[in-house]
Design brief:
225 residues, alpha+beta, 35% strand
């Protein structure tokens, strides 16, 4: 079921990005703007694997879109602002810093490259923007660690851009699939395999029938000829 959350207008045509877990399985949602105007939004696409969704509203007055910044330029220690609706408190702004980048294995979504921040994020902030001091959206606030203070996670804006572009155009997201199993290349494995840099991953399995398997078969045929 849908809940209460936050969102950000990313296109003046009325496209709003939020979290998938905010819209739930709803087809329409109630959207309240900064000036208290209430609009009915239609969910045009959702991607559970990244926990993003796009809502479209029709407004008689012009809407102002917030620019998406380049999250690859975000650095640990820089100031950021989280804006949202925590516990029903409209348009709450909190200040913090970027605490970490590229956070993975959090078991929050399937695809994770989170920006970690200590800007205060609470229930209701989900789907709201994380701004840099230029007023650019660098992340969409998504989750917190319940038992901790000052540990929140935002989906980086570059991922948001990729996902929302597909959701607006097609309503769904299409991803490539290799069909292989991988594991981290730790120091012990790197030494055993003769990898000096210790970077990369080890392909531990190739799933039968998937693209990686078919490519392997094709390569074997070429080599045998």
């Amino acid at each position: 079921t849908p809940g209460t959350g936050s969102g950000a207008i990313i296109d003046a045509e009325g496209y709003i990005v939020t979290n998938n877990h905010v819209v739930g399985d709803a087809e329409t949602v109630s959207v309240r703007l900064w000036d208290k105007t209430s609009l009915i939004g239609t969910v045009v696409g959702r991607d559970p694997d990244s926990d993003l969704a796009v809502v479209k509203v029709e407004s008689e007055t012009a809407l102002t879109a917030m620019p998406l910044g380049d999250s690859s330029k975000v650095r640990v220690g820089q100031f950021v602002l989280a804006v949202g609706n925590p516990f029903g408190l409209d348009h709450t702004v909190t200040l913090g810093v970027v605490s970490g980048l590229g956070r993975q294995n959090m078991n929050i979504t399937r695809y994770e490259q989170f920006i970690q921040t200590d800007a205060s994020i609470n229930p209701g902030n989900s789907g709201g923007p994380l701004f840099n001091l230029k007023g650019e959206i660098v992340g969409i606030n998504t989750a917190i660690i319940q038992a901790a203070q000052g540990i929140g996670f935002s989906i980086p804006s570059n991922m948001v851009q990729q996902i929302t572009t597909q959701l607006i155009s097609h309503g769904t997201v299409t991803r490539g699939w290799l069909g292989i199993g991988i594991q981290q290349l730790n120091a012990e494995l790197a030494e055993k395999l003769g990898v000096k840099e210790g970077q990369g991953v080890l392909v531990s399995d190739v799933f039968e029938g998937d693209p990686g398997f078919r490519s392997e078969e094709h390569t074997s045929e070429l080599q045998s000829h």
